[in-house]
Amino acid sequence: MASAAEQLASNINFGAFSKATELKKRLWFTLGMLIVYRLGTYIPIPGIDSQVMADIFQQNQGGILGVFDVFAGGALGRMTIFALNILPYISASIIMQLMTSLSPKFAALKKEGESGRKKINQYTRYGTVLLASLQAYGIAVGLESFASSVGNAVIDPGTFFRVTTVITLTSGTIFLMWLGEQVTARGVGNGISLIIFAGIVANLPSALVGTLELGRTGALSPAFIGILLVMVVAVIAFVVFIERSQRRILVQYPKRQMGNKMFGGESSHIPLKLNTAGVIPVIFASSLLLLPITLANFSAGGGGSAEWLIAVTSLMGRGQPLYLLMYATGIVFFCFFYTAIVFNPSDTADNLKKYGGYIPGIRPGKNTAEFLDYVLTRLTVVGSTYLVAVAVLPEILISRFAIPFYFGGTSLLIVVTVSMDTVSQVQSHLLAHQYEGLIKKSKLRGRKR
What we know:
By secondary structure, the chain is mainly alpha-helical. The protein has one domain: Preprotein translocase SecY subunit, CATH 1.10.3370. 73% of the residues lie in helices and 5% in strands. The protein has 19 helices and 4 strands. Strands 1-4 form a two-stranded antiparallel ribbon. Strands 2-3 form a two-stranded antiparallel ribbon. Strand 2 and strand 3 form a beta hairpin. Helix 5 crosses helix 14 and helix 8 (104-110) packs across helix 9 (114-144). The longest helix has 40 residues, at 409-448. The protein is globular. The model is unreliable at 1-12 and 300-306 (pLDDT under 50).
């Protein structure tokens, strides 16, 4: 069966794609929603002087604001309606997933199936509104204190500006949350990941031009730019290799005799990915780390900030040891946390025992669960180390040589992983379409006979 599926998948071509009407509709819907998102990143919030904001961001783009702007798709630098992007929703999702592990009430909701999932999603939306409102208010207060040689960032500061900013930024986040859910349900790929992906990819050409400009002015040597491009290709190849790596655990099913026939006796495997959590830990760690630091940067830029806040801001700057340590710690934590959510060794062991399957040399039940947990823990150690290396090591180079963040490990990791996931879903739709075609042909042949 597996070989037949692989053979069918290998026969997928452009002709099959042209006949897959449902897939084309999904792709056009996804593209349309991403275009709407990109248009929104150019609509400024009311009461902002765009030129002053451009000057302020130009002075701080090498810092943490530049990192946040990557995930916001350039919306932060332009201070548009999508300046908060989807990060409040990600933060609310993290909190809810933590609650399902710590609170018996939320753990019970998780076990209720579809109805429990809907309630958890509803609480996540409420949390998104609350977090977005708080962060929007902090940004509004911080913007009022910003000024450059051109003038003040806010044209008419006061209560009205704060209220309109909170409403605008919160509404932008809620709209992106809805848009991401629509893409996931009616499009191709994970909508939330695709929104971040689109923001990064849209700014890659300008980042490439900026890097070449640094080479033209002599800020970077041509040899270093060549080494940088080779490193980018090497990181992409490394990410693809690790993301496709699996540990296959053999599962054997016993033979059963029913009448005069023998059934079963087949072998299968449980595919455990080397990086089970995917790109989620990097996005989670970035969202939790970037938002407080960004608000601290806004407050520190006000001129009347406390000395301790300025000191903390400097310690948490790009490439600083404290920033890198917290970033790496967050990635490792969410690697183990998210892996524990998506794969439960006890449930897998119970299902194997229920259907008569067993791992050769391991007793069914508790011993199987312990073995799966043992293997998964060691795979997660390797996977988390890989994520930290890809995300943190290029961060050091970026801070030392002033390379655009778009060429950093985090950006490349998100782009490559989301691309692979989307392509995989496209292939799944094409495969399902070809299976449907084969079934229809077999039915027609049966009727002719």
